[in-house]
Protein 1
Amino acid sequence: MIIGIDLGTTNSLVAVWRDGQAEIIPNALGHHLTPSVVGLDDQGAVLVGLAARERLITHPQLTASVFKRYMGSDRQTRLGAQSFRPEELSALVLKSLKEDAERYLGEPVSEAVITVPAYFSDAQRKATRIAGQLAGLQVERLVNEPTAAALAYGLHQNEPESRFLVFDLGGGTFDISILELFEGVMEVRASAGDNFLGGEDFSEVLIDGFIEQVGKPHGITDKMADPVRYQALRKQAEQVKRALSGNEQVAFELNHEGETLRWVLDEATFQKLCEPLLKRLREPIEKALRDARLKAIDLDQIVLAGGATRMPMVRKLVAKLFGRMPAMNLNPDEVVARGAAVMAGLKVRDVTLNEVVMTDVSPYSLGIEVSEQIAPGRFQPGFYLPIIERNSVVPISREQTVNTIADNQSALHVSIFQGESRMVQDNIFLGELTIPVPPRPAGQISVAVRFTYDVNGLLEAEMTVGETGEKHRLVIEDNPGVLTPAQIEERLAALAQLKIHPRELLPNAQLLARADRLFQQTLGEQRQWVSQASAHFQALLEQQDEAAIVAGRQELKQLLDELEGEGWL
Amino acid sequence: MSENDCWAVLGMAPTADEREVKRAYARLLKTTRPEDDPVAFQRLREAFEAALWKLDELNQQPPAPVVVPGERDPAEIEAEARLRPHIEKLAELNEQGTRDEAMAALELVLAEFGLRDEAARDPVLWRLFEDGMLWVCCDIAANHDDFLRAAVQLFGWTKPGNWLLERDPKTVEWLQLRLQEAEALEAVDRLLDLAELGNERQAAEQLSQLADGELLVSVDVRHLFEAELMVGLSEFDPVPTGLAAHAIRLFGWQRDHRHLEEYHPDAWREFSRKVAVLRFLASAAE
């Protein structure tokens, strides 16, 4: 069985294609969303999901979140005595989802389709593949998130032909894709995006606002100074963000040195603060429409994906940008995962998907550095020569020929970049190779540079020296953000040493972590209740009477739910 | 791929019918999937793109206007016959006449058929008139803005609960866009007038306000606004430096100007030439 995974910045989901439809697989707690949070419990065992998220506040030094933002870099995150790379933290989330799927399906799972932001670079894609590998999953395909969302929507289209735009604002990334649907073909016409714009940024805006309005007068100037406080602020921001809608006033609260600090605001205030973020939504949309040579009025539907599109201000803006209301018939939190399941179904040639073919594009241009003649005999390096233009349908193979620029030049240096800027310094460096060429007068030696870009968004470069016919292939591995095969083996062994918190005990761990967090967030009488109830439940756990534990769990959960108003998941 | 290979790859005779090309491509795609056979897929894809390109060239003539037939009673047919020449006149004036001529003709029809007064007018005649006006408004690309505004106002097409919104939301979206575009073009004219009078600073200030304002939130309206502003600026000699630089910065034309170039290639060439000269003079002066 092959599963589809939406590995998100804030939440992750796993789904499967079964009996002609996509099914979201619940986790150990029975939830569809598994927070992308990894932590170590007090015994040093790995906790993933909601339990870990609860501990973000009580144990920030032992817990990690939003690591998707660092995929493709070699940034290390310390959890207690150990440090982890972003792909290892992602692997732990994937592993937990894999286990959920195995329980649900009743069979081992070893293959997956994983979604990535359309705008993810080569290094970020490779890191995602490696994360899968580290979790014991063969990644059969990486699919762009908005493409997955479109797949989920497209399948439910009754119109024989339509064009739609997917507006995907997730926890950490923003993607736009324009699709055309005809005769069972789902064709991505263009993708564009911003890898550093998502719901988390809107939360940060709220935190900054709180610090400015209420924090500073009370001596809190740096939101990051105290990790425990920062996580409490994040959680509060998330709650306030969800509550803000219409004219209602919402209070942003923080317990600080025995008193409750409050900042009361409404949606209009929040929107004003978010203006700079909202402005950044425009450029990718314009770029994608221009690349697809379409006007907004030509689109038949606007589809929303990603949890951040639940914010009323985002919906209002979308309606104004496109002059119509967006479609909302699928849950924006789940639509990408559903699409991943469809892709998994396509991958194994499920008969129910026989008549569907999907084509995708490369969302960015790929090219090499060249020198340009600025005066007779004078060359200036640093210019960008695109070989594959952005939004070309993949797979694609394209060639450009370059020449030597100096007499008796003995080598040619080929540097590969991704991006749209005229100067390579403003683009992303992917890899380089120096190839020997026979010494000849300037311009006499030509080298054909061929780029081949596959359906997973992975690039191969081949250089052919004109005179000798000698071929050189470039395997892009020298990237600081990408692990080598040897390093992967080493990391696999290290991960195998980790103790994983037993899945069946997760509901208990989550509840206790939540009680700890509430203890920290409440004051006075409420605090006493939490403390007593938590101690009582711990005592029950030690007695190991299953029926009593189940009853006690229910009781504690009810108390915590009451204390928190409504659960925020 | 040489001139006519694309049709051979697609297994069809040359055609100007886009649907037919798409159908042929889709059929072959199901046995030439991109993940199975990249080389064959790329050949098919190139043929498909080449064929689409060719049929674009073949399809330059606009489609003929659609007349909606239907079952009618004799009174309706008679009323339509009386109304028809007037509707055609309105269409003609919109295409070739001035704004004032078109507006005067509209007033004349309203008066002649007694359509102004809601209580007194003949409902059948009113409905036929509305159909005719809708045809004029949607099928004649060169409608005068005021004419369109008057029609939308008269029939309330964009108001919530209007029959048109229920039956054909796409047309309402289009009409709304068209009205916003008219407003945007007027805003461009005002800016250019200010620049002409030498009030460049004031024009730049207004441009900033517009760029952040409600009117230019819609991507299509903004697109047209930018393009018309560029065309207007390209006609100045010399170009008002401050305003041009401000527009370039505000709309990011230095990063992406494809829409401007596509909208009016000559004006874009002129604009970039004049702006480049200015930049050169500025750097020489430093």
Protein 2
Amino acid sequence: MARLKKFFAAVGLLRESPVGMIGVGLVLFWVVIALIVGFLPLRDPLAQSAGDLLKPALTLAKDGGHYWLGTDDRGRDILSRLFFGSRLVLFWSSLATIIAYSVGMLMGVTAGYRGGWWDEAISFIGNVFLAFPQMVLFIVILSQLGSDSPAGQWLARMGFSATWVKGTTIVLAVMFATAPQVARIVRGLVLDLKTRDYVAAAEVRGEGALYIMLVELLPNARGPLIVDACLRLGYVTIAIAALGFLGLGLPPPDPDWGKMIADVRGFGALAANAMIWPALAISSLVLGLNLMADGLREIALRD
Amino acid sequence: MTQPVLECKNVSISYYTRAGEVPAVYDFNLTVNAGEAVGIVGESGCGKSTVALAIMQYLGRNGAVTSGEIIFLGRDMRKMSEQELRKIRGSQIAMVYQEPMASLNPSMRIRDQLIEVPMVHEGLDAKAAELRAIELLDAVRLPDPQRILNSYPHQLSGGQQQRVVIAMALLSKPKLLLLDEPTTALDVTVEAGVVDLIRDLAKKTGTAMIYISHNLGLILETCDRICVMYSGQAVELGNIAQVFNHMRHPYTYGLLQTLPLPTADRFARPLVPIRGQLPLPRERPTGCTFGPRCDYFKAGVCDLPQVMQSVARESTHEVRCARASEIKWKVPDKLGSTQKSAKIGPVVLQVKNLRKYYALKSGWGKPARVVKANEKIDFEARESETLAIVGESGCGKSTVARVLMGLDTATSGEVFINGNEIGQLPVKKRPPGLISNLQLVFQNPFETLNPSHSVGSQIGRTLKKFGVAKTQAEIEKRTGELLDLVKLPRAFADRKPRQLSGGQKQRIGIARAFGGNAAVVVADEPVSALDVSVQAAITGLLTDIQREHKTTIVFISHDLSVVRYLADRIVVMYLGHVMEQGTAIQVFAPPYHPYTEALLSAVPIADTSIVKKRIVLQGELPSAITLPTGCPFQTRCPRKIGAICEQQLPPVKQLAKGHSIMCHLPDDELQAMEPVFALKSELKTKSKKRSQASS
């Protein structure tokens, strides 16, 4: 109960930042859509209709329904593909961010608290990954861990669907590219936090390093990390969409927003309608996350 | 009648926060005449800094003067335009802040920062401005002005930085100088120099000063008049002698009683803390703000709003207390119950020839540099005894604590606790019984508790770790007992640290340290970050617990007044060496080590009946990487006798049982030393005797 109350108090604080509220609204829109999309009266996102290719928005369908946002190059309903796609986008980008964050926090807190040799090693590995342009890193990792790779084949043999195999490799790629950045932030925060007396107090009562890192240090770094995680989730969403656009994303026929753009791009101006909607979806979600982060930061800075 | 420099008339100041308007200061009246130094004293949160900012008209976006007039040289500053104010600030009114490093731009040379002032305000050219800057650097007694001008702020010591800031404030010959805790961030001997300087400058230049401080002793030494503030109001205003000798407000009275004096110990004159807490600005009582904490509270009189009124017939002494004339004022002496000294037991802690060097990282091929934090430390502490380690920053006192706690291991030498060697034993290798036997109380109450966890869980974790309590029920029971021990309500276990005041946090820190019935508790400046009235309560608590548990307390501090009050034995450290050690009485009476003498004379004393010898140390603290040859103190020693001080490490002389000094001074000179503190009355009789003898 107390926890719930606190949560509402935090939301109440966010209400003071109009920018933050817009962000929350955008993000919440997509989250709610992803949750209830199965109950919405939508057309089948995979059903193709040879007679309705690249139709504009608000077109009447042959079966009497509407293509509210038009159709793509195979006559599939864009609205339902977008809405079903939100599930994929939110699920995989959140999962990738959470895993990248966990690894990055662990790296950062170890480097920051242990210092010395640990710090040198972890920071070096991180810097190696940061030295690659992100896309190059993605492509290298995805090509090495793709469904043709031994790891991918093993996963497939274990009964994982193609989507899961691909999704897992994307999560790993995002982790390698993002975790070092997170580690840097956490390391900086921990370098400051570890000079606090309560850390010395824990050492003086004989606590182990793991306890101090996880219980004494990380909880106190949460403020800036929550803000950063919002931003990072936005970046990951863009990265996954970009991968989809490059054909490295989730396998067809799942409606991935990035791939939806890539699918119709060959049709040029004819496909403007089919391209604008997924683009808007991506930018609204990322914008929402960024505004939310801004709002949180603004509130954190006040007082 | 000349015009006063500054007149505050019924000034009220508010801050606007998310929760609404918070009145910070109200009904504030103060007149400052030319050449006068007025001190504003009060505890944190009383509004003293807000007053200074209001005078500068610099309250920030969320603060505003809501009513009253602030008249500077006949003009109300509230009616001035932003442009007029900008002309006045920095030229007619200057301000010196607490942190010198925060007032100086770290990326600009001192020259550029100094000459800017007369260039902007008076239109001088760079050459003339530089001449003026050199003149003032000279006036603030900084040797070698050219070197200072060419330095960046980080190349100067804290004392030098603050002198530069004062010089900068005086550059345009201001009519009014505001000093907001200008020496709080400095060491005592450095502080003594700066205070000396401020006093002289005021006399020489005739600048009116407002000196804001929490330290009554400093105000006594620097100011002509004093204004005592409490919870947003001035409660007493008068000349130094009036307020200190004939205080007429219960808060002033209480404040003076909570102050440890370097001339009294805890048995002769126990401190009497002011009970209760400073009310939050939104929860101030409607009547006298001090009412709930006042022993003289009388319903029907004190719960009405109070006004400043003159103490009978003395127009210069005003007080905000309706009962001022009814209360029987005593001199704050011999009040409170006197306690008996605890019986000192066998030796518990022994430190022999302790040496701790830290190796600094150096580049490839460069010789490794070594910080010699502790050179040769010898002392022992007994059961039920309070041993104080005193010294200024950089003397190595905290390093001793770190080695004791096992956060670092000794480079050489031995540390015994109850006969077990622990100097080479890092905390990770110590058995739980040993860890709980030796605990630490930290300096900063705002950092001593983890803000993410509740108070109860932090105490509970300690108990579990020490093996004192195992089951949840046991832990809860013991946590409750510990909260009782430090006199906090048991309900505090569920609170988060941010819901606690500084003093309460420090109590939790003490409860945690005593969780496993520690035999030795190292207290590293446990009260230096607290307000005086809270300090008294915390020191009282520590001694109470000590008496009950026969604990040995190693009290690390820079504050000699507190040390004199608390300690049975004192170790004086300087640059990693023990300069002097002995019982508190031995150390505070001659013969002194020259460093102890300087340290003692630097302590500000809030008692008009005491005169002290002034010794201001010259020079800067040497670096611990390149220690001076011979005696570590020889570079600053006012009693240096010659080449021997530069060549040989002085021998440790036994002057009396348990009293030793590390110094080359011959015995007869040591014996001839005069006490630093003397009562005025005694001095008079002495000089009378002398004149009689000569005639």
